[in-house]
Structures are given as C-alpha cells and as structure tokens.
Design goal:
Two copies of one chain form a homodimer. By secondary structure, chain A is α/β, with parallel strands linked by helices. In chain A, helix 1 packs across helix 3. The longest helix of chain A has 16 residues. Chain A is elongated and about 90 Å long. At the A-B interface, helix 4, helix 6, strand 2 and helix 7 of A face helix 4, helix 6, strand 2, helix 7 and helix 13 of B. Strand 2 of chain A pairs antiparallel with strand 2 of chain B, so a sheet runs across the interface. Chain A binds a DNA duplex (30 and 30 nucleotides) through helix 2 and helix 4.
Chain lengths: 361, 361
DNA sequence: GCGCGTAGTCGAATCGATTCGACACGGGCA
DNA sequence: TGCCCGTGTCGAATCGATTCGACTACGCGC
C-alpha cells in the first residue's frame, strides 16, 4: 500500500510529497511528523529517525512555504519598493549600497527581498504580493498612494528619506543640514554666487531650470530637503533640476548653468549627488573652466571608486549601507510586533580638492 | 452585532478583516463573496454591490496572498539567485541590465522578483522561500548544490549562462565563439603575443596569474568559456584572473600583465568584460603605454555611457537586457507548465578605437 | 401544465502545514 | 499502594481563501 512511495523513483512530474505522505510512510501521525521535522516538541529519537528516513525516501523537500506562511501568518518576505525602473535606480551606487545594507540585515534574518518596481500602474505587486513588511526607497511622488494601499493591508511600512507620514517608520538623513554645511563651506571660501544642480524634483524627470514655484511642485523629498539646505545659506542660488542621478544628467545641468559670459556664471556649484557633481565637473571642463580654480564643485553621497576617476570630490559622505541596515532592522522589528525607533543618519563633510576660493575677477 | 465593523475606525492593531467577515456583513456565504470579489462565476449585480460595500466598510484589502497562494499552488513570485553580495553583483552594469530585462517581463506578468543572495551558507532562501520558479544568474560555483535543492522542491529552473545541467533550462550566450571572434580580430591585425584578463574563475576571488590547471579548478562557466574562445585562437596566451568585474580589478590585472620589459609584455589584451578592459587601459596608461599604439585592448559586454569616459572600446556587444527578458519569459512559460525552449544569444563584434596593429619592435 | 435548463447561491472539501488539548503510559515520591 | 507528573503520540481545529457539486427558484419550450 504505502509502497506507492516508490512512485517517485523515476516518474515525470510527480507531485511534491506532502508531510502527510511522509507521516504515513513513517507510520506516525501528521502532527508527530511535523514535530519531528521542526525539532520542536518532544519526540523520541526512534520516531525522529523514522520520519527522517521516510522523508528521505520520498524526497520530501521540507514544509511547503505557502502552507507555512498561511499558518504562521508570515511569509518571510520583505518588499522593497523602488520607484523607477531597476536600470535607472541602480545606476546610482547609493541605491545599490542602500539595498545591499537592507539585504545584509534581512538576509541574515532569513527573509528574502521582494523587488517591487513602481513603474506604470503596476500596483499589482504592492497590493497583492505576500509580504510581511515593506520598505519604500526613493519613493517620492506616489508615496501617499502606495502607503495607503499598504496600510490597508496592515503591513508595517518603513520609508527611507521620506517626509513624515502617519504610520510610516522613517529612516532619515540630515539632507538639509548637511547641504547647508556644504553651502557654508563655500561661503567661508568666499563664494557669493552659486548654482545648485538638483536631483529630479517631480514625477516628470524633465531637465529644466528650477521653477520659482518649486516648493509647490516638488514631490521628491530628498531633493527638496537638500535644496532647502543650500537655500538656507544662499537664498539667491540659481538652480537647475537634473533628469536623473547620472553623470550625463549632471553634465547637461552643468552646461546649462555655466552657459554665458564667464562673469555671469556662478563660481561654485552644489550638486545633489556625486554623480551629478562629476557631470558638472565634466561640463566645466568642456566650457574651459578649471575645477576648483574657476569653479568649485560640491557633491553629495560620498561614493568611492572608479566612477570618480581619481577626483577627490568635496562632498557630504552619507552612510548609505548603514542606512540600509537600519531600514532592514526597523522592518524586522516592526514585523516582530516590537516597537522600532526611527533612525536618523548624519552625513559627514569631506573637504576634497574640488573646492577653493573664487578667482578674483 | 456586526457593528463590530466600526472597531477599525481608530483602534491599534486591528486584525486584517477576512473574506468571511465581509461575507457575514454582506449577508452572503463566503463562497458567494469570493465569487463576487474575483468576478468569476455568476453573481447577481445586487449581490456584487453588497459585497463590495461590505468590503469597503471593513477596509478589506483583498484576498490574503498567503491563503491564495496555498490554494492556488502559486505564489506569483520568481526567485532570482545572485551568487555574490548585491553590491558586488550590481557593480557590473551587465547584471543590472540582465535583472532589468527579467523584471520587465515578470513585472508585466504580475510576478514579483525575490532577490536571493547566495552569500555564506544562507541556503535558507533557496530552500524555503515561496517561489514558483527560479532564475540563476551568475551562479557558478555552487550551481550544482543550488540546483539540487531547488529541483527537490520541484521548481522550474532557468539558468543564465550556466553549463548544461539536467532539468535546467539554459539561456545561453556565445561566449566562446564571440571571444574567439575578438581574438581573431587581434590576429588579423597581426598580434602574436596576447594576454587575457579573466573574470573570477573560482569561488575564491583571488587575483592571480592563470594557473596551468585552470580547466580543473574553474567553476565559473562564463569565464571559462570566454577563456576557451581566446585560447582557441591563441593557445599560448598568458592569462590573469581578476578578482571581480570592476575597473579596479582590471587595472590590477593589467598592471600584472604589463609588468616587465616592454619587449616581453603582450601587445594586446583581451579582457573578459568592459569594466576590466577599462581597467587595463588605465593600467597601460600608468605604465606609459598608449592604447592602441602600444597595446590593443578588447573588452566584452558592450556597456555604454559614463563609465567608458568617452572611450570607443573594441568589444563584443551582448544583448543583456534581451537575455534577461528571455530568462523571464522562460521562467513564466515553465511555471505555466508549457514547454519553454532554451534561448541562445549572439554577441556582435564592435570594432572600436582600442585595437590597432602592433607596433613593430 | 409539466419538465428541463440556467442563473444565483450555498455548503463543504481542499490546499499543507502548525499547534493546542487530550490521552496513555511508566517511573518517582509520599 | 496510590497519586502525580513528564514524556511521547495523536486527533482535530485553524490559517483564509478557492472551487466543485448540489440545491432552489424561475422562465421557457413543447
């Protein structure tokens, strides 16, 4: 009878054996088999061995995660919502570092990361994927919407660098203060006319000069905060919104700010990311300006390595990986029911070789 | 009685309402509620409306994905296994492009991507995450192991650029042939002494000269194939295995190959990735060699954009995004029970400005 | 006017595990 | 000798949905 077990010997698409089958073969009840398998509960060694043998014989691959997650009310999956296309989001090393930090923590806790892109109207994932918690990163525009959906599902929400929102645990960065520090550095060097290259401010990532009503139209929290930080010090700064956090977009923005007579262009530019800063430097190079002689450039992020091409960028170094870890930890704590305290990270000013006093003209 | 619905008005951790609760409030059976909600089956408009109203009142967020996935035997999740740490894997734009291609297809089909890293002994994800299929990318060393686990779970497996393996649907690239094409290009230019910088060949990513017994110790399929392609044309080529697919690792390898008397170093280097190639070019620059005057360099991948820094690299352009799409499609087909045919992609040789005839010496 | 098909609804089984409470048995302690 | 408790095992409820088969009316055709 139970020798139907041998079915699996060779056949084609044999259905996955269940715990019940294992129990039957081992001659014990399902509950005992479960106990034996999970190690919880008192089970005699002999029984344990028989169950193990039966499982082995049937090729039982362990409890079905679907059934398990239903019963336990946990799926062991944490959703990560990324606003843009993956290829866009991952162009910036900061996002990768962030994700790496998250993966570091959640991976260690045995949770998987479910990547949810928010492109188009693909709400499907957010509204119906099996998750225990969700981490929003780089989500600006549609934040409210996403939060509403997720909240209705009763999932804990962690948001990295988002504006305060009811029921959302924030992982913050001192964007405004840090940017102000960078700006003050320029002021102390003697700069009085500076430009700002911002990250995309609104949903439509169209590169353009900063509109006067940017406060009203801005939906990207990080960009807005960093901009405020600069304006705190230089209320008159001219701005240009880049189309993305890439070198190319930075170059484009840089060319726009540096166009015109040398006497009328800013003597320093604050870029809201290091990639943008590198682009600005490239633009300066193209219009024949020397950095930092003719133009000082400040970045943000503190990326390292190849992309910099050996440049020692003056920038604000943010602990991206650590930020990711904090987000991961917070998500885990929340889904454990425990309270998680919001984290706030601080960027460190790194004076590099791309800033200097303005050339007297 | 049923006014307990109002509990959710403000309270703390109200448990998520179930379909049963909705049905009760609407005064219909659970089965009818289910039918009404999913739209399947004949339900009168009046009933549908009442169910919808009840769901609305209770704040029902739709069927619990966990229960759904148990019943349906599907979780709507596709696992993507990445061998290394995310920050390492995503340093190479090719991997991002690949993932983007996968996400493109699976996202459109409503499936989420579960990121599983294979760092350490963290088999947890692979062996127990709720997934419907799995895609292995850049998995070399521990391929067999991973495949064994997943196969026992009865999941369809798609592997990108892996060696043939029973029960695994391969998505291939003409690594060997394409590399040979690159090598023949060098031969036709007149080079007779070339070097190869390979991607990591084994688990331990230690940079070192290619050992004589590399065939035996190599576990990375892609690297090995690309190497074979070059050796097909230049059996005597000297090799150096880089520690990663990064510019820095390429530079390091380049310096190693270019050390010594100018007369004894290779006149051309084939790098197994564009990032490595850029590193090699940087190394050449450092030791005072001009590319392509003193040294020709061939890459692999066909990355574009900033990292290249304006270099027109001679390389083999592979359709990475398309490869990802194919992998995604294959996974979807397999989990639909349908047969999926393996895909094989072809790289296109792009003659750039980094190769030239060797300087006569 | 009778029977049959169908729209609409419901009850119950099912997916595969976990876990609580109950039960039987044997040994230690009073 | 009798009682209690811990160990090992089992049955049954439960998680939350989907879906099959059955049942009730009702309308239509013959």
């Amino acid at each position: 009878m139970t020798s139907e077990a041998s079915t699996g010997e060779k056949g084609g698409v044999r259905p996955r054996p269940t715990l019940a089958a294992v129990a039957r073969l081992a001659g014990v009840s399902v509950s005992t088999a479960s106990l034996a398998f999970s190690g919880a509960g008192p089970v005699s060694d002999a029984t344990k061995a028989r169950v193990a043998a039966a499982a082995d014989e049937l090729g039982y691959a362990g409890p079905d995660p679907r059934a398990q997650s239903l019963r336990r009310g946990r799926s062991g999956i944490i959703g990560v919502v990324i606003e843009e296309r993956l290829s866009d989001a991952f162009r910036d090393p900061m996002n990768i570092a962030l994700l790496d930090g998250i993966a570091d923590v959640t991976g260690a806790a045995g949770s998987g990361l479910l990547l949810l892109t928010e492109t188009g109207d693909d709400r499907a994932g957010i509204s119906s994927a099996p998750m225990d918690a969700i981490i929003l990163i780089g989500c600006s525009t549609s934040l409210e919407e996403a939060v509403a959906i997720v909240r209705q599902r009763g999932l804990p929400i962690v948001a990295v660098e988002a504006r305060e929102l009811e029921g959302v645990l924030p992982i913050g960065l001192d964007n405004r203060a840090a940017s102000a520090t960078g700006a003050r550095h320029l002021r102390s060097l003697g700069h009085s006319d500076i430009g700002v290259v911002t990250l995309p401010l609104e949903r439509s990532h169209v590169p353009r000069p900063l509109p006067a009503d940017w406060e009203r139209v801005a939906t990207a929290h990080t960009s807005a905060e960093r901009l405020r930080g600069v304006l705190d010090v230089y209320p008159e700064a001219r701005g240009f919104a880049a189309s993305a956090s890439t070198i190319e977009a930075g170059r484009e923005a840089g060319l726009a700010l540096l166009a015109g007579d040398r006497a009328t262009v800013p003597t320093a530019i604050v870029a809201q990311s290091d990639l943008l800063a590198i682009g600005v430097i490239r633009a300066a190079d193209e219009v024949g300006m020397i950095v930092p002689g003719d133009l000082s450039v400040v970045g943000f992020d503190g990326i390292r390595g190849e992309v910099l091409g050996g440049i020692d960028l003056t920038t604000l170094v943010q602990p991206a990986v650590e930020k990711g870890r904090a987000a991961g930890r917070a998500a885990l704590q929340l889904l454990d029911g425990g309270p998680a305290e919001p984290a706030d990270f601080t960027s460190v000013f790194h004076p590099g070789g791309t800033t200097a006093p303005p050339r007297t003209r």
